[in-house]
Specification:
The chain is of the alpha+beta class. 51% of the residues lie in helices and 14% in strands. The strands form two sheets. Strands 1-3-2 form a three-stranded antiparallel sheet. Bound molecules: zinc ion (2 copies).
Length: 180
């Protein structure tokens, strides 16, 4: 057993048994999930629990699927992944629960230039997106240097316009390594 599993067990075991077993079956075995993502999964489920919301298997599955992704994916892709894993579910239920998760702030939605589709990702650490104009590849970046300038801008903007900026989203468009 790797080290991260021990930490996860310690955290997961505080949760209801059904959730714990669901977690064992669907998440622990999937080695694509990093420790950070595992913790994000648990925190988001815990948030649902704290808010007194129903933790349905489909909601758990949506969150666990998005926890394994390194880039935003569409609702169609989420549905396909469920089907691939043999989860029998009606499309409308999945779409409704994706909507539910977004409204509760568990996941974020994004639109990208030239893409008539909404993409979803887990509401985790703040980051920006880089999108290839040619192949459509979406990458995630954690831009520390830019963030400092943005924070300064936000402070100045509050002073000069009396407008308090709470969040921002930045997308960079260009050509990826393969498409140049
Ligand atoms: Zn490309
Ligand atoms: Zn930022």
């Amino acid at each position: 057993m790797i080290k991260s599993d021990i930490i996860i067990f310690a955290t997961v075991s505080q949760y209801p048994k059904a959730l714990y077993f669901y977690y064992l079956q669907h998440c622990r075995i999937d080695n694509k999930i990093t420790l950070m993502k595992n913790n994000t999964y648990i925190q988001l489920i815990k948030r649902l629990e704290d808010d007194g919301e129903n933790i349905t298997p489909i909601r758990q599955k949506i969150i666990s699927i998005l926890c394994t992704e390194v880039k935003p994916i569409s609702s169609r892709e989420i549905l396909n992944k469920m089907t691939e894993e043999g989860v029998s579910v009606h499309r409308a239920t999945v779409y409704r629960d994706i909507d539910f998760c977004e409204k509760r702030g568990l996941i974020n939605s994004y639109m990208f230039k030239d893409k008539p589709v909404v993409f979803y990702e887990i509401a985790g650490e703040h980051h920006h997106h880089v999108i290839c104009d040619v192949c459509g590849e979406i990458q995630i970046i954690f831009p520390n240097k830019i963030e400092k300038s943005i924070k300064d801008f936000e402070k100045d903007f509050l002073k000069s316009n009396n407008f308090k900026i709470n969040s921002h989203r930045i997308k960079f468009y260009g050509q990826c390594d393969k498409c140049q």
